[in-house]
# Entry
Amino acid sequence: MSVDPRAGRLAEPAMLANIPRLMTAYYTRRPDPTLREQRVAFGTSGHRGSAFASAFNETHILAITQAICMYRRQQGIDGPLFLGIDTHALSESAFASALEVLAANRVNVMIDDRDGYTPTPVVSHAILTYNGDRTRGLADGIVITPSHNPPEDGGFKYNPPNGGPADTHITGWIQDQANALLAEGLTAVKRIPFERARRAATTHRHDYMEAYVGDLTRVVDLDVVRGAKITLGVDPLGGAGVHYWSMIGERYALPLIVVSDVVDPTFSFMTVDWDGKIRMDCSSPYAMQRLIALRDRFDVAWACDPDHDRHGIVARSVGLLSPNHYLAVAISYLFTHRPEWPKDAGIGKTVVSSRMIDRVAARLRRSLVEVPVGFKWFVDGLLDGSLGFGGEESAGASFLRRDGTVWTTDKDGIVLGLLAAEMTAVTGRDPGELYRELTREFGEPAYQRIDAPATPEQKAILAQLSPRQLTTSELAGEKITSLLTTAPGNGAPIGGLKVVTQSGWFAARPSGTEDVYKLYAESFKGGDHLGRIQEEAHAIIETAFQSGGAR
# Structure
């Protein structure tokens, strides 16, 4: 993986998105529905793209929103729809476009009463709180965000009544209907002017902030944080939770300092990510330089991405923690400090997350549920309490309330940050020190994810790889113990291949949104052994590409 020489430095003026030009592109460019890259495409986190590339334009949002209205009618979903946005420039415009269609379809829409931003977990919390014990008149939601993607991108996600990311059978249906609407020139799309939509009897103002912030003590022990003599810092990275943190600090009298409350659609305050792009990735050491530089000011600090569904934890002892490290620490802490949780509540992880989690789960004597990439796989378990925790190596996680009931069924970077404060207050050690304790007990793994170029044809080959294509029985000098194309936890396809040995593994899968494949690898024998795993994994994948995926 080649690192751009600008990585970790403040973005240069020439790198900043031209916001007026971006907005013009949103309203004036018309996507060609015959081109794959300009059609509606729901990946693991909704439809994403840039208006400059004709991949996220007004036409897309009108079509997707109408398709969601059609889906609601088909499924009999007639409760309110909770609508939230993040701070990306295209989010405001997409909000207006969506509201025009929702109001024309007479959908009761809940918008922020402060005309502000709404984090993804807050929308999930609102859906679940409203639905409660209801069996009729259920609510659902839309979050307008491309997550941590660059400033010129937009994103659009649908959350059904279970509060979590929509499953593929839902997103596939919405995607197909939206593309059909595009092909028909939007003739079936209902729409009224924005000002009429805002004043419509079906458009309601909802106090998202009060409802969510007022409920936080039910999931994190903020009393112990308030009483501890620790210093806490948070960097919202100019995201949707920017005004939530001051309310949280004041409401619970926490020793919490908000590093910056600046909202800038160019995100000019960001240091450049590994590839030379501005990306608000709170798990990247390049993008997180501002908060890392302040590590000595705080006992523990954290940041969240623009829609606040991901977390990045900075501990005084080690700096920025790897997401895998923090997931292992969070699991170890939660399952020994939540006495009211169900005794049979399991631990959810994705197939590309660290096997340190497996070792922690075994020590806790909790079942481990290993699923494909995508938080949607944890939704049912979090909803019914059969999972106490679900987390992804990409720094997304959520967990149950302190009484063992559901909190959110979407990723929640806010409570993962506050959990870091709780565990520091309770144990007297920051998450970095707690992870070192785990390595003394279980060994220290070396882990890395690499993104490598791949054509659409190569991505298709990788997604269909079969264990029968491997002609070797060893990986990096160890016997292969399992070859996986489906996840052990639920039998669902992982969209690639995972190869496992006693002390290492690799997994390869195509990206759903970029022309790359992702290679994940880990070794409990150190960096040199990890390098051998990666080298042999690349060779296996290249052989598959050259053979055209023939079985």
Remarks:
- The longest strand covers residues 446-453.
- The mean pLDDT is 96.
- Residues 41 and 276 are 25 Å apart (CA to CA).
- The radius of gyration is 23 Å.
